[in-house]
Amino acid sequence: MATLSFAGVEKRYGVVQVLHRVDLEVADGEFIVLVGPSGCGKSTLLRCIAGLEEITGGELRIDGRRVNDVAPRDRDVAMVFQSYALYPHMTVRENMGFALSLQKHPETVPRVEAAAAMLGLSHLLDRFPRELSGGQRQRVAMGRAIVRRPKVFLFDEPLSNLDASLRNQVRVELRRQHAALRTTTVYVTHDQTEALTLADRIVVLNGGVVQQVGTPDELYFEPRNRFVAGFIGSPGMNFLERLEDHVVGVRPNDVVLGAGPHEAEVEVVEKLGFESMIHLRLGEEALVARVEGATPTGRVRLDFARAYRFDRATGERRG
Amino acid sequence: MRSPGLARVVVTHAALTALTVATIFPVLWVVKMALTPSSTFSMSVNPFPTEVSLENFSAVVGTHDATGSWLFGRQLFNSLLVSGITAAMGVTLACTAGYALSRWNFPGRDRMMAAFLLTQMFPGVVMAIPLYLLLDALGLLDSMAGLILVYSTTTVPFATWNLKGYFDTIPKDLEEAAMLDGASRWTTFTRIILPLARPAIAVTALFAFMTAWNEFILAATLLGDERAYTLPVVLNGYVGEFSAEWGNFAAGAILVSLPVTALFFILQRQLVEGLTAGGVKG
């Protein structure tokens, strides 16, 4: 268990700056998700915490201790890699017990067995990674982290190699593990659904700059700029450029059809069972409405239950 | 799958048979030469011996030097010692060097790799005289240490390239995982990297051993005392300028090829893995 503290953390490769002054305080036991498009610096930030990348500016503290120059193995953090990075020549048991066996820890065997039982891996302990399915490998990778009882868990897109149904299942499992262990966790993903469902707080990154830090609700309901508004929520927010001086942002479920000041043309209706996506044309602009029940055709009047306004030039929120 | 036509089968098998005969014929001839007593040897094309005796083998194995001590035993020991240490040293140095070259980018790295490659381009004959002068200056002529040193200059660069190539294929994630698990660089190297590189190490070791075991030109140049000879030099002695003891030569050739053949069989499984490594992911 530990706190994490970033003060003006920067990362630079030669002239290329990939992280710009990251300031963030992570509370003990918190589940933080770093999210953003690919190349935004989220994985680099995670690797900086692990010590696999050196920080070129600022200060990083784990549990109050400055770790800028501390080797990965002395940071007491465990990481689950996207590739799982299981040792191919070791059995599941040896993989999970590797860290403790290096320390000649007396509890190696019971701890491995307890973690295996928790993850449903007990019957696979003597198999090699090549004999396991993708989901099982993923659980072994998690088990290897859990066995160590580290100060911080780091996850680097751990679900991206799993199929959709398994991904949902493991996501719930992760949440359950975190509720049981309450270990400070930093989780990287590019999938905003994963971010919203898992996080206590989300850090949205773009171009190496932190856009906003907040709870899933804060990011969804009070986005600070156009980037966050567009990135969080699915389907994404509609941006209407020509309605007012500012850019108007409306979430598809805030588009109310039937009455209102605007008139639009129904172009395409996507039926999704319980709900439908209505693709509309409002003047020269396209927008999507999410509705339940009957779907309109032809011309409809509409209103916005809630709209956001963003500065045309900077993208900052204006209302 | 459509079964191939009869004509095709016949042609394929005829070609394969011809190839097999062409490959085996010289080997059978050597066996025949080795087994036939030198007095009755004839140059007929029949690859099977008409008379069998172990006379040639006992002549080769039973050589003694002027002091009466067993010469062949001494020479076999020389060969095993030189080849064994060359292989062991080559692989040990190449493992650490190859790993460093694979994982770190340091000043002079590319030039070092190029220099290593360059050393492979000179044939032994070209190097024989300079090496002779060097070893003479160092007082290492006629010594096993000198020969090992000479062989290592060619095997270490080759082995380094070979192993570096294999280390490149081992994902970095595995090392990072080990380091986060609390392993030092050295532990990561010995517990994670080396076990995974086992097939490549086996191939490299075998190659280094064979190179040293079969090498003739440098050994013949640098060794003058028959008690320091390695087996290829001994073999050459049977085919002189004025007389050729083909029977002894053939028996010696068979004896010399036995250890390498045995090593091949022992390492077979590793070799196949080594040769196909990287073909399958994971």
Overall description:
The complex is a heterodimer of chains A (319) and B (282). Chain A is α+β, with helices and mostly antiparallel strands. In chain A, helix 2 (92-102) runs parallel beside helix 4. In chain A, the strands form four sheets. A six-stranded mixed β-sheet of chain A has the order 6-7-8-3-9-10, sandwiched between helices. A four-stranded antiparallel β-sheet of chain A has the order 2-1-4-5, covered by helices on one side. Chain A has a four-stranded antiparallel β-sheet with strand order 15-14-13-16, with no helix packed on it. Chain A is globular and about 75 Å long. Chain A is 26% helix and 34% strand. Chain A has two domains: 4-227, P-loop containing nucleotide triphosphate hydrolases (Rossmann fold); 236-310, Beta Barrel (OB fold (Dihydrolipoamide Acetyltransferase, E2P)), CATH 2.40.50.140. Chain A has helices at residues 42-50, 92-102, 108-118, 134-148, 164-181, 192-198, 216-221, 226-231, and strands at 4-13, 16-26, 31-35, 57-62, 65-66, 77-80, 152-156, 184-189, 201-206, 209-214, 238-240, 247-250, 255-271, 275-282, 285-292, 299-304, 308-310. Chain B has 282 residues and is mainly alpha-helical. Chain B folds into two domains: 6-53, no CATH class; 67-276, MetI-like fold. In chain B, 72% of the residues lie in helices and 0% in strands. Chain B has twelve helices and no strands. Chain B has helices spanning 6-35, 55-61, 71-103, 109-119, 124-138, 144-169, 172-180, 185-196, 198-214, 217-222, 231-237, 246-276. Chain B starts with 5 loop residues before the first helix and ends in a 6-residue tail after the last helix. Mean pLDDT of chain B is 88; it is low at 277-282. The interface between A and B is medium-sized, with 24 and 17 residues.
